[in-house]
Amino acid sequence: MSSLFHHIAIAGIGLIGGSLARDIKRLKLAGRITGYGRNPARMQHACSMGLIDDWHVGFESGLQDADLVVVGTPVCSIAQVVQAMAPYCSPDALVTDVGSVKEPVVKAVASALPDKICFIGGHPIAGRENSGFESSRDGLFENRICVLTPDETTDPERLAKLTCFWEALGARVVIMNARVHDKIFGAISHLPHVVAFSLVNALVDTPEFDRTILRYSAGGFRDFTRIAASDAVMWRDIVIANRDNVLHWITVFQQSLAELTRAIASNDADSVERLFKKSRDARRELS
Predict the structure, then answer these.
(1) What is the pTM of this model?
(2) Is the pLDDT of residue 213 over 70?
């Protein structure tokens, strides 16, 4: 495929940014990739791995001719990064992000960017529990959903070009309102991480729980708590940024857990079985 973009800048070369860089090069979607990050040694390492063509710590250099800018930093820093970039971006640049929370990011970025620069929120559903560009891989976005959250001011041509970019990476693009996005992913992504973190903490913080017995865990505990190995800073930012939705879904979960607790406490086997079957049937529909 011929290049969709002349020069792509990626701020934050982590798992997603590194995997993007890999596929951009592999699929020849850009003539050049510049990376931006705070740690010179890490950036030089990413460059020596061939993920990026050059790198900078500040945005004063190399950003002026980038026609696509991807922000892959933690959610709570995206708006500040965009604000720092804005004076050096080309007026024709298309700016996007890959964060897991959209509404507060889109609102904050709207006040940070000049009107001529187009920002479209993005969220590729392609995370893994491992972080850092060392965990990046080819084809991470193939057959995955990428949500884009344009608003009423978004240029249709630029939205179409960004859609083509993600489709070229193998993703299926879904257009969604930013507020709706945050409510949905608060339930299906952010809540499960909160529960997994809490479950592991509940057990390891309990005196009668011997950590050595973890070696006996097979599918159940290991599979359910796999996501508790995710990056703590990244998930701290996500749940704080999407606080209201996360708290709402925690309350919903607590109510469901309370219902099951009452059934077990009252030795109500029929209710326990009914609740388990309800969950089983709903989960099978997802397969």
Answers:
(1) 0.90
(2) no
